[in-house]
Amino acid sequence: MVLPPSQRLWVGMLAVMVALVVEFPGALPKCIFDEVQAQNGVVRAAPRGPPSLRAQAGQQTHHPGWRASPLQGLSERQRRSERKIPPPTPTSPQPIRIRSWVPKESNNLSEVEEKRVAAAVEEAVRMVSSLLSVDRGKGPLLLSRDINKYCKFIWRNSSTANYNSSPSCRCGRANSNYRSETCLDVTIPDDHLAGCRIYPEADSPRRTELRPDGAGLPDTDFLLYLHLGATDKCRAEPNVLAYAVHCQTDAHGRPVAGVVVICRDRLTRAAYSHQTSVQAVIHELFHALGFSKHLFHTWRDCSSTNTAGAACSPRGTVTHSDGSGQMRIYTPSVISALQEHLASTDPELGAPLENLVPSSKLSSHWESRVLQGSIMAAVLGDPAAVRIDPVTLAALQDTGWYSVNLSRAQSLVWGEGEGAMFGSLSTCQDKSSSFFCTGRGFGCHYLHLHKGECQTDEYLEGCGVYKPLKNGSECWKGENAWRSAEEDRSGEIFGVDSRCFVSGLTRQNHSGIILSNSSAEGRCYRHRCAGPNRYQIQVSGSEWVDCPAGGTTQIKGYQGLVSCPDRRLCLHADITPPPDNVIPFPASITSDPYETLTSAQDETWSPLRPPAELAAATALCVTAALCLLAAVVVSYRKCWSRRVRVHSAPEEHSDL
């Protein structure tokens, strides 16, 4: 059948709009870090500082003709006196300096890809640097070569603890097949690496230098290699967004280099979300910096010192199974943070780790039932619901490598004040829970920014939660008004100050006759705060009405009640709509709002704004099209009383 031109136009516009809204970025992104890290080796990095300092640590050796220093054999106090060097003074931790480096193989990005990556990584690095501080090493960061790769025969000092991996080991014979060092899929530049040498004897000062030391990277505490491409893992999982590893640590076990792989084709999706990408990079950075089951056993105890650093001692085992078989992290800051969050006095309230792990009992993610919404949960949801939470920051504090700014933690509303048993399989089916749900009904996501449907997924293990609907669930998006088939009778209002309320409101006509019956489910109404946990609401055509937290209210001109959530609204100033929306335009035909320039000299980016004329013109064109399409859709829906909902499918997810 051939449609007339006018109908073909409408069908074409509708098809474009459907294509733009069906993809919901951030819907169930799942992380594959544990799988990738298990396949990647880790090398201990060279000591920081000048050659003399590296020599003291056993890494730097002596030139031909070397002779003992006249100060050798003296005590430390005598040497200081002889050199007239004042004793070292302790330094306070400083914000971690994360240097991003894009290897040559990732330099063929398009302009749009460069801009999006630059903006996301820059914001993620800035946020992590504001949270974590370290004792900065002296001199440039210089990574180590893997002696087991470049060496065919190794002199090992059996009197040294862990002598098989000790940096004092020396190479006796070179491996002729050795070419380069890699970190995951990235080839590390020689300029970032210490040199390699061979020695005729284990204790000989004579050596042959095969490769010299590189210059290293100044002002760097962690080197982040960014690999952008269509890797095998990206191709194997169409929804993979990014993944990461750490590949080098310092002498105290702190990771100093790692890779974040960003699947390239995800950068040009029509529904690309800047905030989702930022959260994905932060999630992977936290893994690479130490939130990793591969590093739990290397965390350090700094209780005997005021700061993180060399004075700390190994913690030993920090994970144990509780009575139900759930693996938990038991460290002081983590226990304290979870006690405060759940309002529990249980002294052994360790933070639970995800228990759905196929190959081992240990995971590098929090249990979703207990810490849903955390940046380190196994599944990330809508960007508005993901939080850099107090429990995650407490875990990073307990690594012993960082001084953490705990005051910058974001509010984790999920489970707040619910007690030590919250999230257990035995309690999540309780119908009185204000966080979990049963059945398949419609309600509100627990942050009340979205409408939701009661659903479960593999990580919830049968427990139900209200998950955002796939299309039009955001109450704070004014453009969603055209999707509401019941706006005229339920009084919905969409906008930046609108939130979701469980409502059974039905509009009455001027004669007081109810236009139709409506079941109670999630509706979007305006709200404004009157104090902590105190607020008013407004529905279409009504005045502002007090909504008592934990109770219900009636609206003049409507039949039915609105439920007023308790301890969810007007308590946390940082629970707001995300700073950016999904960008619903094909990347090839629009200017990106996070436009940047790349500097080849220092691999840093500087954000720029797009031309105002282009942005204004684009906005006007799109607004006109939306308005026209909205009018047609509303007219169509008024002709047909049937309601159509599009829900997020539990099995659809994106891997980080």
Description:
This protein is of the alpha+beta class. The chain has three domains: 31-65 and 90-289, Elastase, domain 1 (Roll), CATH 3.10.170; 296-424, Leishmanolysin, domain 2 (Alpha-Beta Complex), CATH 3.90.132.10; 438-575 and 614-656, no CATH class. It is 21% helix and 20% strand. The chain is built from 13 helices and 35 strands. The strands form 13 sheets. It has a five-stranded mixed beta sheet. β23 and β24 (464-468) form a beta hairpin. The chain is elongated. It starts with a helix and ends with a strand. The relative contact order is 0.12. Mean pLDDT is 78; it is low at 1-28, 52-89, 161-166, 581-622 and 632-656.
Distance between the termini: 44 Å
> Radius of gyration, Cα only, in angstroms?
29 Å
Please tell me the CATH architecture of the largest domain by its name: Roll
Which range does the strand content fall in? 15-25%
Q: How many helix segments?
A: 13
Q: Total number of β-strand segments?
A: 35
The major beta sheet can be summarized as:
5 strands, mixed
CATH topology of the largest domain: Elastase, domain 1
Helix content: 10-25%
Main-sheet strand order equals: 2-13-14-12-4
Low-confidence stretches: 1-28, 52-89, 161-166, 581-622, 632-656
Apparent shape: elongated
Q: What structural class results from the helix and strand content?
A: alpha+beta
Mean pLDDT: 78
How many structural domains does the protein architecture include?
3
